[in-house]
Amino acid sequence: MHTLKYHHQSLKTIGLLMLLLVLQSCAASPVTDGKIIKPTNPQPVSKGTIYTSPDGLRYLVYTPRGYERSSEKAPLLLFLHGAEQRGNSFDMLRTVGPNIAYETGSLELPFILIAPQLEDNEAWNPRELSNLLDEVESNYRTDSSRIYVTGMSMGGYGTWILAGKTPERFAAIAPISSHAYVEQSLAVRQVTSWVFHGQHDPLVSVNEAIDMVKAIKALGGNTHLTIYEDADHDAWTRTYAASEFYEWLLDNKLQNESTQTK
């Protein structure tokens, strides 16, 4: 009788431990069935950690909730800001782009997010950005088949430039409200892209986005265009607030064997 009672208690204990492990696993994963979770009671995920690259580029790194408790590799998202966020204060970066999701917990994103900051009057340099990605990949558990880059305004142009220099590195890119020149279409045609623009953008004509997408499609590339009919230059706020945007990124994965075994 005592043996049966002990056996019952042991099974109960094991069951509770298994339930706890399941709950911890769920808490550590921001994605459920391919969907990004939008919490009903948002809690900040991270304020980001500040680093300086060997090239002197200062940047923030955000890790997803539960990253420290997991041994799995995480997708990597590089965010390039616009001209107005240049300077020496990361406070300007914390309230724009995907950074908002980590700072406020508005969305539970699964990415390791990199957010570099340019100094005044600087422009995005693809060599420095490639070196930055190398550094982060060597210091964090990253899934090299799921590396993405997105940017707004000047950062959108930086997205095109970087993808054109190393198209084999990215599973998908998303330039927003940026200059785009059809001469670049040949270099970026092999990278899946989603382009966003405001119909009434007074700084960068929407026709640049339209022409770029047409050129890429003519070369057989996989690209999409979203034009917000009621938007001006700011086509990024609603884009980065939408869970569907990040779900689309995650749907894209490199299939190159050498990339996956990197």
From TrEMBL:
<dbReference type="Pfam" id="PF00756">
    <property type="entry name" value="Esterase"/>
</dbReference>
<feature type="signal peptide">
    <location>
        <begin position="1"/>
        <end position="27"/>
    </location>
</feature>
<dbReference type="InterPro" id="IPR000801">
    <property type="entry name" value="Esterase-like"/>
</dbReference>
<dbReference type="InterPro" id="IPR029058">
    <property type="entry name" value="AB_hydrolase_fold"/>
</dbReference>
<protein>
    <submittedName>
        <fullName>Prolyl oligopeptidase family protein</fullName>
    </submittedName>
</protein>
<dbReference type="InterPro" id="IPR050955">
    <property type="entry name" value="Plant_Biomass_Hydrol_Est"/>
</dbReference>
<keyword id="KW-0732">Signal</keyword>
